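Structure tokens please, single chain.
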Amino acid sequence: MKIHQGIEHLTPLKNAVVTSGTFDGVHFGHQKILKRVIEAAKRDNGESVVITFWPHPRIVLFPNHGDGLKLLNTFDEKAKLIAQQGIDHLVSIAFTKEFSQLTSQQFIQQILIDKIGTKRLIIGYDHKFGRNREGSFEHLKTNSLSYGFEVEEIPRQDLEDVGVSSTIIRKNLEEGKVEVSNNYLGHRFSVSGKVIKGNQLGRTIGYPTANIQLGDTYKLIPADGVYAAYVSINEKEYQAMVNIGYRPTVDGQMHTIEANIFHFSEDIYEKEIEIHFIKMLRKEIKFDNMDELKAQLSKDNQLAIAILNR
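Here you go.
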């Protein structure tokens, strides 16, 4: 898949079959649209194109709304997931307040027609675009002849049958229900970041951990607790248990993500690793002493292994 950062250097593509959206999570609903785009491109002997926006429009338009929107994917994660679906081109458009003022007519002419050379546009049933979301399927359908491209809408029922949205997935992750989220996503939810120095307390009780520093402040982190997980390091996968939270037993002051990687002893400081969450084992709790914590970690370890070996 070719990634285009912006549209400045784009030239019209061959029989471009296009869809657009934020695609946060690239969940089953999104995958249904992408599959249709790919099928249409193959039938038309053309190229499949996804237009997406970064940062997420809600972050730009509502920067002071509560604690801000947390995203299921960083841009790199989203691009990787879209590539795995088999899309030919990903066009990333910088979403700014200035860009948000483009009318639907300007978006159609300047981007879909002039830059991409769209021959077919495929959108979800509720998709709208342009300033104040004024662009609609009905408008596109009515004017498709003058625009020079065909328009196809994925029916409401086709998408609602999937029963999933990025909002539903975020809610489940915020409640620690990662296995439910994974089912909706059609892949394992993950976070990635650099391994940094911690206080190395885990080593003293037999459970050394890799402390992760995330690179994107907008990335959603699952609920505080202990999880069974896989950790990817240099394209190799290891079983692990992961703690998210403040480590109340040792009076921790910082919110951390720590992975105890099973049967692993390499030095990975400053390396990028990826954590794939499978199931929450328990909520984070405060123990009366270190012996109680150590005993619980032994139980967590056994439970995590049992879950990951299924």
